[in-house]
Design brief:
Chain lengths: 217, 189
């Protein structure tokens, strides 16, 4: 089955109190299948090509571009300082400047990185076995989440990515150990988060890119 | 009942005001105030980003102290605090930019005087960075022909070529490795 046929992004739920505060906040998720293991030569070549696009001056002026600005403004509005806890696209760009390249860290991680670099929208991969089939969404963590032995360090009141059963990650943070997709081949659940000012097409493009690279390499 | 209308929000271009969403259990006034604060925060963030880009070639802006906090829904007071902090940082950034721009203008004036009357500014140096220019060249007033120029009062302004490459241009295939033939090693600036 081709990626296009299998790829079906779905809108995740946003808790009403969050949707009222942030009407532009969206989570889109899709089920996919990862080939796993190390990235094939094509993906590593693509990462090298993307590395060549990033220069110091471009990274400095990145924050005035529409998509990074949208994420930075949203970070401020949820109590994060994007100069301290960088938005995902800036985090990747700074890592590129520090290391001199985008380092390959396995196909799953690389696919999410390529999607982020191409669109500015962060994508994460979860182990599909750990995710409720009804899908993912964003809600406020409760005391039960904080006390749950799921491994997600979500303090009460924080914004989290969760399904009906459990919390998987603090918003914009890496997934908890029990939820993150492994390097092995198998089904994964990809999700991307968009905020006001980020076009829907960027979210779908990011998810499609990651799903395509994960399935075909 | 708790809905606020926004005059600019229209449905299908007919001009019917739509109610903006209000969080459950939240008074309309507070919701409007929070919305206004979030807009102000977004605008201040944009202006701070512009200031950051402007200040970067001048030496950058001080970074805020690291503080770990999870993402959360901020209360009215917290949003005001974020807005006020951003406004303070923006004001401080603009002062820094203005001060550095004044310093650069002063250095440019000094350079013009050096170029006009080199003999009145013997051995003075102005780095390109002080002028807000890239590179590590240095404008300096030096005597023409060394000691003879000093004795005769022949002064000139020279721009040094800047830092040498850290490792040179590297050995090229089929080309002999160039070696420094100076008696004294080069001093990187």
């Amino acid at each position: 089955m081709s990626t296009e046929a299998a790829f079906a992004p779905r809108a995740g739920f946003i808790a009403p109190e969050i949707a009222a505060e942030f009407p532009g906040l969206r989570l889109v998720w899709a089920a996919g299948r990862a080939r796993g293991g190390a990235s094939p030569a094509g993906v590593r070549r693509r990462l090298r090509g993307l590395s060549d696009r990033y220069r110091g001056s471009g990274v400095v002026s990145m924050r005035v571009k529409p998509v990074p600005h949208a994420f930075r403004a949203f970070y401020r509005q949820i109590g994060l300082d994007p100069d301290v806890q960088r938005i995902p696209s800036e985090e990747a760009a700074v890592a590129r400047l520090l290391h001199g390249e985008f380092r390959s860290a396995g196909l799953t991680s690389d696919a999410c990185l390529v999607a982020l670099l191409e669109t500015g929208v962060p994508v994460w991969a979860l182990d599909a076995a750990a995710v409720d089939p009804a899908g993912l969404g964003i809600r406020v963590a409760t005391a039960a989440d904080a006390a749950a032995p799921s491994g997600c360090p979500a303090p009460e009141g924080s914004l989290i990515v969760a399904d009906r059963a459990r919390a998987h990650a603090v918003l914009f943070d890496e997934p908890a150990a029990g939820s993150a997709a492994s390097r092995a081949a198998g089904p994964v659940t990809l999700f991307a988060v968009g905020v006001a000012g980020v076009p829907d097409i960027h979210l779908e493009e990011a998810l499609w890119l990651a799903a395509d690279l994960l399935s075909r390499g | 009942m708790g809905a606020v209308t926004h005059p600019r929000q229209v449905q299908g271009g007919v001009g019917i005001p739509l109610p903006l969403p209000v969080a459950p259990g939240q008074p309309a006034d507070e919701a409007a105030a929070r919305r206004s604060l979030r807009d102000q925060i977004a605008r201040l963030e944009r202006e701070l980003a512009d200031a950051f880009v402007t200040a970067y070639p001048m030496g950058g802006l001080p970074q805020p102290a690291p503080a770990a906090a999870p993402p959360r829904l901020l209360g009215l007071g917290e949003l005001e605090q974020v807005r006020d902090d951003l406004a303070e940082r923006l004001a401080a950034a603009r002062i820094t930019i203005r001060r550095r721009a004044d310093e650069q203008a002063e250095k440019r004036r000094a350079l013009e005087l050096m170029l006009l009357r080199p003999a009145e500014h013997k051995f003075e140096r102005i780095a390109c960075r002080e002028l807000g220019e890239p590179g590590c060249g240095v404008w300096q007033v030096r005597p023409r022909l060394g000691l003879i120029g000093m004795l005769m009062g022949w002064w000139q302004v020279k721009l040094s070529s800047g830092c040498p490459l850290p490792g040179g241009q590297g050995p090229a295939r089929g080309r002999p490795v160039a070696r420094c033939t100076r008696r004294r090693p080069c001093v990187p600036c």
